[in-house]
Amino acid sequence: MTLLDADWRSLAPAAAERRDAGWGSLVTYSRKVFIPLTRLCRDVCHYCTFATTPRSLARAYSSTDDVLAIARTGVDAGCKEALFTLGDRPETRYSHARRALAELGHESTLSYLKEVAARVRAETGLLPHLNPGVMDEAEFRSLRPVAPSMGLMLESTSTRLSQRGGPHFGSPDKLPERRLASLRAAGVAKVPMTSGILIGIGETRVERIESLLALRSLQDEFGHLQEIIIQNFRAKPGTLMADAPEPSMDELAWTVAVARLLFGPGMSIQVPPNLYAGDFTELVDVGINDCGGISPVTPDHVNPEAPWPHVDRLAERLERRGSTLVERLTVYPRYIERRDEWIDPSLHAPVLRWSDGAGLARIGTWSPGSTQVPSEEERRELASTFSRTSSIVSTVNVLARGGRVGEAAVAELFTARGADFLYLQTAADELRREQVGDDVTYVVNRNINYTNICLYRCTFCAFSKGRSHEALRGPAYVMDMEEIGRRVDEAWQRGATEVCMQGGIHPSFDGNTYLEICRTAKRVQPDMHVHAFSPLEITHGARTLDISVSEFLAELRSVGLGSLPGTAAEILDDDVRRVIAPDKPDTQSWLQVMRTAHRLNLRSTATIMFGHVDGYLHWARHLQRVLELQAETGGFTEFVPLPFVHREAPMYLKGRARRGPTLRETVLMHAVSRLVLGSSIRNIQVSWVKIGPEWAQRCLQAGANDLGGTLMNESISRAAGAGHGQEFAAARMAGLTGEIGRRAIQRTTLYRNVPD
Q: Taking Cα atoms as reference points, which of 208, 668, 596, 658 lies closest to residue 421?
């Protein structure tokens, strides 16, 4: 039996296997509002009820005010995309359209579309997706700054359909060569595109395959097709094809399976769920991974007779099939990741602000440092019961037994949702109980940030500033040794066993400065543990004294340095470091400082600062590198996830970073850290100052066992916009842990019992 004769059921297993390889159990959709800018069109497709004539319309074009009003209803309903539907260049056919455009101050529909799309993005935050029809390269480039994605259905490469009697007769923009040329122009202009075919309008199976192959050829050349839609013809009253037979659902399923087989695992294959008369989950079984746009507020203007499914009910049906419905943006993750190439710089900020770490839609408004209560939707992400993904469960089980997996498998854990998420969290918590018990530890300490003046310009840092820079929170300062000593003594009197000391790299500081800081602390309180100096400060001190890092660390230890905070790690991946801290030591330099410290019997923490320009693979790589060094030296006492606090961070204010990790990602980081590191680094710390008490509790139920320090003074997170206070007293630690049935135990810096 040939492919043309095959029943879709015989193709389904191979198609589903390819889909699973690319998308796992996820089925995506975009929550959008549909905006009909004009229903006039120069084409006369014989199946279309969207396009009409001037006499049928009160106005040729929607006004800007009307468009913005529709867009705002979408914002209120949680939409992130504004999809503009319109006809093809109606001004070339209708004088009425030309007069209307002139009154609006425009010569063309595309010009007016550009203005209105820009207003929608600027005034509502929605991301425009444009479907203006056939365009040339210059027109795509003109619209690129107002929309991160656009769309043009190929429909068919069959020239028969444009001949007299065919559905495209009299429609110049439906000539296959024109549409293919336009899609090629979009590829040259680097515009992420939606395209696809329309089936059931008189084409043959051979012609469908030819159309799909033409799209695949364009994709192979330019890589700009982000999704392929397989749309089934629906007969509509009042059209020339009102009595034409619609394609069977078997025919649609066959076409979907063939598309998946032709395009492979990576392509997004979509069928609009409102156009399928059967059980939509059948189409998942034959290869789709996307439901397209679903609007909670506007109808499908092209198919008004077919209402959108309710998202919750669609999610339930997919859940029974074993799939998880997740929201995406109008532009797909791979283009967001390579945004310098594919998205106009003016759109980077709005796209990133809607994105999570996978490049999918960010759910809710919670972010690290925020005192805002998470939305119900965000809370549902942490309590869902969707079916499990076998690969995630398998990886969790391997790690829980003490096994090792590759970085790709670790990265996949951060995609966990629904029951996968709950399974992973539960496994991490059980492993925590097995490894360190139920006690929650903390240290009574004080942060002493002795200067916020810094030579470096890390793009994530809202704490450091130049000598007279006042743009960020608070004035520039340098703390003298007398004040440092006073704060050390005050901390001791209040019961602290540790001072954590870090600061900016002041231009007048050298290695002697850091040595004197240690001497001052130990002179005031000889029994105070000095936990101080990031690897950046260590390398700076060694360089200014013209000695090796090993020699400088030995000198610091001799004057009282007890351990190192594992900060300045950020992400241990140089692709990320070059973006967020280009003048800081690279990954290997950070690791080498820690390796040297550990060999000198100076213990340290290890940190990760995540949720800015990084992704899941970077997080996995970071964990693996920390694990490898721990296997070599055994010198890390704890691992500390530090969610990026975005509010005052320069790279966020410049539109170059996300709003920190989502709540789901934050909990997952603690759980995955336990699974990956727990057998080697037994203590996983949660930063209450970054995420607040309630979500610190949740992380303590997802693998974490330590609450860090009481701090007394906290400057760095506060400077970035965190709102959770500067101190978390021991009594509050006890109360917080007691609420989840655990006991808070004070520890020393090195996880020993605190003497009376």
A: 668
| Chain segment 331-386, per-residue pLDDT in tens | 999 999 999 999 999 999 999 999 999 999 998 888 898 777 888 788 877 776 65
* Same structural domain, 470 and 332: no
Q: Enter the pTM of the model.
A: 0.91
Could you tell me if residue 209 is inside a domain?
yes
Q: Say which amino acid occupies 323.
A: S
**Do residues 319 and 450 share a domain?**
no
Q: What is the pLDDT of residues 553-596, one digit of tens each?
A: 999 999 999 999 999 999 999 999 999 988 888 999 999 999 99
Q: Which of 423, 198, 418 is nearest to 322 (CA)?
A: 418
Tell me if 404 is assigned to some domain: no
Instruction: With residue 29 as reference, give the H or E element that holds it.
Output: strand 26-38
Report how many domains make up the chain: 2
Q: Which of 37, 704, 143, 102 is nearest to 425 (CA)?
A: 704
Report whether 725 contacts 710 (CB < 8 A). Answer: no
Inside any domain, residue 377: no
497: nearest Cα among 534, 520, 530, 523: 530
Q: Are 454 and 504 in contact (CB under 8 A)?
A: yes
Select from 331, 353, 375 the last residue of a domain: 353
The contacts of residue 437 (CB under 8 Å, 6+ apart) are 705
Our CA angle for 196, 246, 300, nearest 5°, is 55
Which CATH number fits the domain that encloses residue 467? 3.20.20.70
State the residue range of the domain holding 624.
437-746
225 and 114 assigned to the same domain:
yes
**Among the listed residues 231, 254, 292, 284, the one whose alpha carbon sits nearest the alpha carbon of residue 32:** 292
Residues in the chain: 756
Domain assignment present for residue 42? The answer is yes
For residue 191, the model assigns a pLDDT of: 98
Q: Give, for 151, the enclosing helix (H) or strand (E).
A: strand 149-151
Give the model's confidence band at 543: pLDDT under 50 very low, under 70 low, under 90 confident, else very high.
very high
Q: Is the dihedral of CA 244, 246, 248, 251 positive or negative?
A: positive
Strand-pair category, 561-564 with 529-532: parallel
How confident is residue 718, by pLDDT bands cut at 50, 70 and 90? very low
Do 344 and 441 reside in the same domain of the chain? no
